[in-house]
Amino acid sequence: MEQQLLKVLIVDDEYLIRNLLRMRVDWQQQGMHIVGEASNAAEALEQVELLHPDIVFTDIYMPSMDGIELSGLILERYPSVKIVVVTGHDEFEYARQSVKLGISDFILKPIRATELLQVTTKLRAAIEQERGREYELIKLREEMKRSLPYLKERFVNQWLQGVLHEEEVREQVRFFGIPISSRILEAQVAVIEIEASVHQQAECKHSDSEEIQILLRMEGLKHVQAYYEPDVQKVIVMDTRNRMVILALAPDASLAAQVEPLQEKLQQALTAEGIEVNVTIGIGKMHSGWGEVSVAYREACRALEYQTFAGKNQVIHFEDLVINSVINSHDPSQSYRSDTGMLQQLQFCISVGAGEEAVSRLEHILSAPFSNIAQFRMAAMDVITECQRAAMEQQLEGEQVFNNEAVASMLMSEYLPDLRMMLEQYVRTVADLIQMKRQAREGKLIDQVKVYLEGQMGNADVGLSSTAAAFYVSPGHLGRLMKKETGQTFVEYLTQLRMKKAESLLKQTDLKGYEIGEQVGIPDPHYFSVLFKKQFGRSMNEYRNVRS
Questions:
Q1: What's residue 132's pLDDT?
Q2: How many CB atoms lie within 10 A of CB 468?
Q3: Banded pLDDT at 160 (limits 50, 70, 90)
Q4: Which residue among 106, 175, 450, 455 sits deepest, i.e. has the most Cβ atoms within 10 Å of its Cβ?
Q5: C-alpha to C-alpha distances, 520 to 189, 238, 504, 542, nearest whole angstrom
Q6: CA distance 371 to 394
Q7: What is the per-residue pLDDT for 98?
């Protein structure tokens, strides 16, 4: 696209000066064209209003109003206009003192072409630079506008997960314009899971099944957003597990009466498109306080997870889970409660592939005083959830982890000994699979590090920290892996590598000792000779003499 010419206005009460300015340079070659002329300040102001020039050349002395006063008026209205004052030697000091107005430059009479070219070249560069910055700023604002939905969704997910301080939440709520109707926040959360039925998935190829799931979630999100479109106090996002979350922020934000018809509408709308779907919704209790939103979200997730034994295609209330747990217990004081700390320990042990330690945590979890099979199944659900969460974090896939039939058979077991045995086997299997994947990944990393060190042989600054940074791992982690895979510390391995290279150079070249040291990354001759003698039992000269 051809660059637009800059517009120039010439202001001088003498026609000869105006004509001289016009004729002195090739304006088009300078990327400019003269759009108008004015013989006095009043006429110049009219031209500025009409033509919007980029640059104004003005004489300093004119009738009624001088060029300095005119410049002040122009810059007050149009700060981006560049103004060049044309002045004689005797007027120059007066003009120079007015630079605080924002005048861009001065040209002395008599006007010389070289000086005029220098000024126009400088002005054009300044304007192009300013416009480039303005363009970048516009692009940044557009990018920010496009990114706002994603940034808002990320913030809401962080809020739901409880990783933000209250002040951070308040600040971002204001930034994203999320309306809070009362001083004390009251909130309730519902989590919606939409999935193709097992029968539908069985009829599709794996790739088709994944595509159907993505399309279902996108279509479902549209329906939920349309359902709540007039209600600004409902925030709707996708969580990190691709489930829809409704965050209701109002004192009267009870979702119970709303989600029952929503669940039916979703199922009808999506099934009408020719796909057999399951729509299940979990709802947490109403909570007060900014920090309690994460509690409401966890309750809704827990209610949703209960679909394993409550069944799909329904709305499950967390309050009902608590009530049922008490009703089904012979001794309400001994009803099962999730041990969050122990479950986190279980997940950690599985995540690092520590099968025996994971089984130990499992035994502790299952040692709770269960009074009926329903309570035991609740504990089993906790354990399975932690196993699958660990598997997803480690990007583990496969039938052995996510086999719905196997999970269902565990949860539907009527015999506690069998369920204990199946849970233990499941925990061991997931931990072992993660351990095998970790070992393969760690072995591959050390192979890459070895190749890297070979290539960095002559670099005296290479070390554990710089190598760890090159592979985006911590120095401690790399050091432990190096010891595990090679039987040597990082320093021992690197030193041995350098000594082997030094021995090879000593045998194959006539390089001097200090030159060999520099080539293997040990520029200190004394330290290099000490290391060589320690490695091979003799000095380099002795080594060469023996070889000769």
A1: 83
A2: 19
A3: very high
A4: 106
A5: 62, 54, 11, 20
A6: 35
A7: 64
Helices 416-455 and 340-351 cross at an angle (nearest 10°) of 50
Q: What is the pLDDT of residues 85-106, one digit of tens each?
A: 988 766 666 666 666 678 888 8
Q: Which two tokens stand for residue 35?
A: 């759009």
Q: Are 283 and 305 in contact (CB under 8 A)?
A: no
DSSP assignment letter at 464: H
Within 8 A by CB and 6+ apart from 436, the residues are 353
Q: How far apart are CA 59 and CA 11, in angstroms?
A: 6
Scanning the structure block, which residue is given the tokens 């007060």? 288
> Using CA atoms, how far apart are residues 166 and 315, in angstroms rounded to an integer?
31
Q: Which pair of tokens denotes residue 15?
A: 């026609």
Largest CA distance in the chain: 109
Going by C-alpha positions, the residue among 520, 548, 353 that lies closest to residue 432 is 353
pLDDT of residue 28: 92
Q: How many whole angstroms separate alpha carbon 336 and alpha carbon 132? A: 65
Q: Measuring CA to CA, how many Å separate 25 from each of 10, 226, 401?
A: 14, 64, 79
A 10 A CB-CB count for 140 gives: 10
3-class SS at 86? strand
Taking 70 as the threshold, does the pLDDT of residue 400 lie above it?
A: no
Q: Where are the alpha helices (DSSP H) in 457-524?
A: 464-470, 475-486, 490-508, 513-519
Return the amino acid letter for 418. Answer: D
Rg (alpha carbons) of the chain, rounded to whole number: 38
Phi, psi dihedrals of residue 274, rounded to the nearest 5°: 95, 10
Q: Which residues of 7-17 are buried (b: 16+ CB within 10 A; e: fewer)?
A: bbbbbbbeeeb
Q: What is the three-class DSSP state of 245?
A: strand
Which residues contact residue 17 at a Cβ distance below 8 angstroms, ignoring those fewer than 6 apart?
59, 86, 109, 111
**CA gap 407, 42 in Å, rounded:** 87
Calpha distance 298→469 (Å, rounded): 36
Residue type, 420: R
Question: 7 — phi, psi (to 5°)?
Answer: -95, 130
From 259, 243, 253, select the one nearest 188 (Cα to Cα). 253
How many Cβ atoms are within 10 Å of 193's Cβ, its own excluded? Answer: 20
H or E element in which residue 106 lies: strand 105-108
Distance CA(122)–CA(89), nearest Å, equals 22
Specify the pairing of strand 105-108 against strand 82-87: parallel
Q: Which of these, 191, 317, 193, 190, lies nearest to 267 by C-alpha position? A: 193
Nearest to 85 by CA among 20, 11, 7, 14: 11
Q: For the chain, what is the mean pLDDT?
A: 82
| Single-letter code of the amino acid located at 260 | E
Summarised one tens digit per residue, pLDDT across range 204-225 is 555 566 777 788 888 888 888 8
Give the contacts of 3 (CB within 8 A, at least 6 positions apart): 31
CA nearest to 227, candidates 187, 269, 197, 196: 269
Percent of the chain with pLDDT over 90: 19
Cβ(67)–Cβ(22) under 8 Å? no
